[in-house]
Amino acid sequence: MDSKIFVHNRYTNNLEEEKVYGDSWLKFIYNNPLGRICLWALVKRLWFSKWYGWRMNLNGSRSKIIPFIDNFSLDTNEFKHPVSSFKNFNEFFFRKLKPSSRPIVQDPDLVIFPADGRHLGFQNVDHIESVFVKGQKFNLEKLFGSVELAKKFGGGSLVLSRLCPVDYHRFHFPISGNLESFQLINGSLFSVNPIALRQKLGIFWENKRYLCIIDNNVLGKVAVILVGATCVGSVHMTAKNHKFHETGEELGYFSFGGSSVITIFQKDKIRLDEELINISSRGYEFYSKMGEAMGKTF
Q: pTM for the complete prediction?
């Protein structure tokens, strides 16, 4: 199976090959019969990710920071705090950025990407023909863990935002509104890398995840689903429940690992960005940063 991942970069307007953290390990796990045994025995088990997360909290993990920054050419000028202030790799991983590094679009009719990442956008979730490979579709009932919620969002618009270990790992409110609730839905912790998703999209509704419901006076209910993945020890919610929040406010952050944010809107509430839709229809993800527009209200 081809393990190369190509992403359309919004800023260069080019299709670029993604440099994958842990690429050789992912190839072994998903493309090798022995690797699949390891996947079942170790990786999908929660203790493996907790153990790895624990390692990233040790003081000794601090030595990994500079090589990581150099290997992936991260811009340290974006960081809110100096590199020397991080006591371990996890502190670096969920680092804060300067507000000027991720400006929020100031048009009240626009909806923003909640996180940095590689995004797929679908105007109508019921009409998705394939995701990553032919024949894979989203199962809203399983994703929400609720038949009732699935009906409320049937025919709605969906944006899948995939975060890599190299990304800024704090996620934000895509729109303003009251955070009505968030709940934990327990599950496994498979990788959400396309190498894994090409084989099984159901990872999204099998993995451990948090379901957040935001109430907006124009868009109605908006669901934000925070999906954990291999080596993500936990999802940290920093926003207060039952409180109004502005667009771009921090909702929370992921500990070490890859992860995803799925944003779902009710039917006929948002017109997703045309370029996002076009790139997604060609089977490629669309790289964009938190704070930039992913759509506009009708």
A: 0.87
